[in-house]
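From the shared-data thread, chain only:
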Amino acid sequence: MRPEILNPLFAEVTALKGIGAALARPLERLGLARVVDVAFHLPTGFIDRIPRDALAASDAGRVIAIELTPVQYRFGGSARSPARVQAVDAHGNHASLVFFGGNSGWAKKLLPLNEKRWVSGRLDQYGQELQIVHPEVALPEEAEGGGREAIYPCSEGITSKRIAALAAQAIARAPELPEWIEPSLKDRHQWPGWKDALVRIHADPADAKARERLAYDEVFANQLALMLVRGEARAKRGRPLTGDGRLRDRLRLPYTPTGAQSRTIREIEGDMAQSQPMLRLLQGDVGAGKTLVATMALLIAAEAGAQGAMLAPTEILARQHYDNLSRLLAGLDIRIAILTGRDKGKVREAVLMGLAAGEIDILVGTHAIFQQGVTYRDLGLVVVDEQHRFGVAERLMLQAKAQVPPHLLVMTATPIPRTLQLASHGEMDVSRLDEMPPGRQPIQTTVISEDKLDAVIAGLGRHLDAGKQAYWVCPLVEESEKTDLAAAEHRAATLTARFGDKVGLVHGRMKGPEKDAVMARFAGGELGVLVATTVIEVGVDVPNATLIVIEAADRFGLAQLHQLRGRVGRGGGQSHCILLRGEKLSETSRARLALMRDTTDGFLIAERDLELRGAGEILGTRQSGEQTFRLATPESLATLIAAANADARLLEDQDRALHTARGEAARIALYLFERDAAVSLLRAG
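Structure, as tokens:
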């Protein structure tokens, strides 16, 4: 069976009926670019709508569906006043239908007076009045009545109901596929077929067997991809790189490496001396000194006459690595260059020519360093920073730039729980930097209620008066009527009114040069406060910044909070982190913030993060540390990985080329769940 059978699923999302330019934008914000993305955009819960023919206070707190007749509009004088529509049921009982956000025109269109409408929503009682806030409305002949309705993650401009209709179309395009799970495993767990599981989970998000089956499929495809990577590494011989020390011996460090750094450097040196390409993961907590280890590896490659490439996920981080390497290696006979998507014309051409001619020893950059047209004379080592941003396919693309498979060192500052480490890096040796450089003081973390904001700003003023700098992190770029989360633009304006031109602002919507200019002013000490979104989460290093304030901290995951906190504590002085929290906290949020307050151990935080997240919460790239799975939960992941790894190895033992009937089916699963990796891997094979 050929992968072409999946073409209907991998069509652009605009192949679905009813999707034009207006609807494509909110789908893009949700990451739904292809039909298959819509099929796997799964509901997170459901609503049971209780059909009623009469309004009753006894239903307060329940979601009901009922036929009502609008009889009166009650609109406030300002645009922000709620729009209220009085409506009655067939028995003359009254309820108020409420719309916030100045939607009076919309309310009139949706609920014309004296015309019956089918209304559904949560019924609440305020005083003597029954009301439904932002009800769903339909004509009586179009109403679906009561019953269970799946609820989907949405974006502004598209409703859950519309996503459900698109998902039904997407599933209808899914072909019948042969089974790729080992039969006894499928029978033992009583799992449905993959398409049946997809149909069932969209109909009922609580269907445990359907969810477990699809979660297994994702993990199985991931383990299969890693198995093939292992096979590729075993099949091909690399090139031993043995340095003579002439560059490392001349390196003058301002500090003595930690024991963990020295141990890891020896491990890497030993790996690179072998003909089998190194595959090593370097885990180091924020500030543990991964850059020095990477620098030593790059120097070993240069001493052996090979080129090294350092890949970073963002332009800010790439330029910081370039600046740090340039300073650290100043005076050595080594040539360093940088290449990002922003480099054009003569600058780009000069780098490409130098790289192809072997005149550049170390190239630092973003994805641009392995794009078409970039040619290395002799690539021997690839260092990938912040590995969670890159998958198997990206790794293979960069490795393909070498004449023989290069040595590979991947680094992450997001400590990975051991369970997740197996999922994403089962084929790699692992080194941990579990010591901090001498002189680093633990960051003091305080959790403060948002109603103490004025006191926090006053404390920021004293901090600036002492000649220190600070970060202020907000979860959003701009304010929205639909959320009460803190917005960076509004906070920057507030702080500018207080502190004047000492305040700068950076966020992801800014263009690269504009963002870099603000960052440079902050790094140079011109700015005292940098207001930012999570764009500063990775790679920003300003030793004089010893305070970070994180607004709405209860809305962030633990791993992200730990990364943000790591922006301070980069120098020798005492640093502080203030976590501003909302008034109403869930037990999980309370436990997360307490953990952040009580420890700075990133590995402990990662393990506790895995324990604290509930079964309904999908592992995300930033919060889990590595691999993104749509369905695997913390509770199920270890079991699924063990089963999938054994199943993939069984295939490997039976037929390495995946040419058995089940192997052909597994090839389809690989394309379905790990498409980019499949294209790269199976082409290479």
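Residues 372 and 532 are 34 Å apart (CA to CA).
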